[in-house]
């Protein structure tokens, strides 16, 4: 009985862990994209 309960808990934990990792990667990508756009716009302003 314990093993039967234990297995879905492991699946849920691994799912939430991978979901959190995915969210973190997406947040990092969006963050780096916005920073890149800001640097690009500042660079364009100073080069005109």
How much beta, percentage-wise?
A: under 5%
Q: What share of residues is helical? A: over 70%
**Total strand count, please?**
0
Total of DSSP H or I helical runs spanning 4+ residues: 1
Mean pLDDT: 89
Order of helices and strands: H
Poorly predicted spans:
none
Summarize this structure as a short list of keywords or feature phrases.
mainly alpha; single chain; 48 residues; 96% helix; 1 helix
Description:
With about 50 residues, the chain is mainly alpha-helical. The mean pLDDT is about 90. It has one helix and no strands. The protein starts with a helix and ends with a helix. It has a domain of about 25 residues.
Q: What's the gist of this structure?
A:
By secondary structure, the protein is mostly helical.
Write the layout of secondary structure elements.
Blueprint: H1 2-47
């Amino acid at each position: 009985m314990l093993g039967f309960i234990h297995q879905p808990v492991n699946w849920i934990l691994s799912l939430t862990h991978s979901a959190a990792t995915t969210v973190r990667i997406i947040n990092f990508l969006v963050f780096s994209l916005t920073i890149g756009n800001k640097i690009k716009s500042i660079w364009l302003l100073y080069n005109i």
